[in-house]
């Protein structure tokens, strides 16, 4: 039986195959900017919206906002309102988000190796 997390993460066509876990991970961080956001939060710690946007200068504010909403809804990023003057919002990784560190590190290592060995690197 699927729990809420599984229903949110695993496509109905997966049908409990052994690769469903890979599908789940791809669903959660498979969008273009999701792993980059997780990577930056892993490296820099909690960041405000503008600071995070500055860390990923190629992302638009609209895409950053929607990506953060999705990552928050998926339980990977926490959104906290900081009651300072002025009031601001800070984003950090949840425990589940921080647990992606070996995945993000592996993606980084694999990407570096691939780009060194390919004709585009």
Automatic annotation (TrEMBL):
DNA-binding found in the keyword field: yes
A Pfam family recorded for this sequence: HxlR
Organism per entry: Natrinema salaciae
GO molecular function terms listed in the Swiss-Prot or TrEMBL record: DNA binding
Protein name: DNA-binding transcriptional regulator, HxlR family
Native organism taxonomy: Archaea, Methanobacteriati, Methanobacteriota, Stenosarchaea group, Halobacteria
UniProt keyword terms in alphabetical order: DNA-binding, Transcription, Transcription regulation
Start and end residues of each HTH hxlR-type domain: 20-119
Coiled-coil positions: none
